[in-house]
Design brief:
Chain lengths: 334, 334
């Protein structure tokens, strides 16, 4: 374990990455070293998406939670790698399900190698992670990770079920977000606590922290889809709506706008016929009815809940870094 | 545990199914009971393919291997169900990868609900199985099953890599077959031995039995694609070739036929332009050059190896049933 960076230097997310760069390098090496299938195509395709600028949020949180609970070992290298493989597997399948052409500004694997390869390499990365996780011989690690994967799949199906349908209760929206995004983040946080031999109460607190942070992340991301400067992410605004996905700002708007606006929005979602003019109008309505403010506020409250989950832990650099990471979920511009 | 059926009554595969029908009923109930996602669409889609006449070969072999090793409990109900879920997950993904419209004479899930749902419900069934398997809290069961899943994914990618390419070494063909088909069958057999607390030597012998039987099954299946009465399976002959897949009879033929015939076959595979006339000619060439006989003989030798793997076990009804099941791999007509 390297020397703990000083708490006073951690002010922004960039400071967090800087402070833990060398500790995360081990995760990065594991990610590359582990891509050793005798079937070269697997390594090429997996390497394409794994080297496309992902921020390794899950391995970072796993590491921070482990350090918060006093862990001094290096199991986070392999565990962080495996969590990232699982995350990558879901991205490969998501891109097929969403017909996505771009991810992080680069062509998706399905655009380069086709849907078939993307499905099978996703299966490969997921099953490789499950194969390696069992070698830790920890029933609780197995349980936490398998639970997260199962819920992710359920969240994805629920999201697809509501595709093109704007009449989704907010509770189901939150359930989708919790399962498909927050579950693996929460599992990563809890795994950090597990390898540190933290108490059940601490494990539960860090699981909740990850859950709250993960929901905040996704709600903020869904809101940025109506507000961000598209250049930062290499994709245009309104992507969710174009794909028939109702997210929190839209659900709020549909609950407040006029019947005629509601009909227009429903029609564009169902027929996938959104024009740029429609989008400008919808974003204007969202500002008028306070839908953006509402969604940002919801995300903010999940961040506050995440920070409150850290109450029982001692102050220090890891706690400071986790708080900054939580704040970052609602302050980033993608 | 019900009374053991008498050894003398087990002559054919139908006798095996009859003898163990009531013991397999528990697997069937588990398969249905376990489809309890709050997302109803998951249950509908999974139920569609799980109720489409699959023979539950893997749960049967798991049960027979457990009984062979003296097991008297009922863990095979849930374990058999989970293995069947994993098998079903691979079928859902395979049908997307192969653009398949029919399976067992019924419309595939992707034809009824689309590729997206098939991918995600496949992910769901797989992750549900992995989630439930960890509740057994057996490291060796986790390891055996996760290993099989990982190898299956690798086999699938290797198969896709060779798609449309007739220049595949026979060793790679056998590697694909071993990974994609035999691995989960071998794991099922070994899990039967594990729940019976069988010795490591017995576990290894039954794993090998499953591996040999699984390879025989796939080689025979690939051969039936050039010989079977298509009506039995609800699909026409030559499907593998139409999909650009080279299997054992074709690889043998390509190693023996004239250069002009080889060019014709390569062209049809690469351009996916096989006519019925081409197929009739290719099947004629296979008969002329002994390719069908060669492949049937290879499958036969794997069955013999599987039966030899049972040498160390005591005679009795389970052993008799396993031998009949192994024989069935090369005597069935689909």
């Amino acid at each position: 374990m390297s020397d703990q960076p000083s708490i006073s230097t951690i002010q922004t997310m960039a400071d967090v990455w800087d402070a833990y760069r060398s500790e995360l390098q081990g995760v990065e090496e594991q990610i590359q070293k582990n891509l050793n299938s005798p079937v070269a195509l697997v390594n090429t395709v997996a390497g394409h998406i794994l080297s496309s600028g992902g921020k390794r949020v899950r391995p970072l949180l796993l590491l921070l939670c482990a350090r918060l609970c006093g862990y001094t070992g290096a199991d986070h290298h392999l565990l962080g790698c495996l969590v990232e493989y699982i995350h990558t597997a879901t991205l490969l399948h998501d891109d097929v399900v969403d017909d996505a052409d771009l991810r992080r500004g680069r062509r998706t694997a399905r655009r380069v190698w086709g849907n078939q390869i993307s499905i099978l390499v996703g299966d490969y990365l997921y099953s490789k992670a499950m194969r390696q996780i069992v070698d830790f011989r920890s029933h609780i690690v197995n349980e936490v990770l398998a639970d997260a994967c199962w819920k992710m799949a359920e969240g994805e199906v629920l999201q697809l079920y509501y595709n093109g349908n704007p009449s989704m209760p907010e509770a189901d929206y939150l359930r989708i977000v919790e399962h498909k995004t927050a579950g693996l983040i929460a599992a990563s946080c809890r795994m950090g606590a597990i390898i540190a031999d933290a108490s059940p109460a601490q494990q539960t607190a860090l699981f909740r922290f990850g859950q709250h942070l993960g929901i905040a992340f996704q709600v903020a991301d869904d809101t940025l889809d109506y507000t961000a400067n598209g250049d930062c992410l290499g994709k245009a605004l309104g992507q969710d709506l174009r794909q028939g996905k109702a997210t929190l700002p839209l659900l709020h708007l549909l609950g407040h706008c006029s019947e005629s606006d509601k009909s227009m929005i429903k029609d564009r979602m169902e027929t996938r016929s959104l024009t740029d003019q429609d989008l400008t109008r919808i974003i204007g309505l969202m500002r008028q009815y306070g839908s953006i403010v509402y969604a940002v506020d919801r995300a903010r409250r999940f961040v506050d809940a995440a920070i409150a989950d850290l109450d029982q832990f001692e102050d220090g650099t890891p706690k400071r870094a986790l708080m900054v990471a939580a704040e970052y979920m609602v302050t980033r511009d993608r």
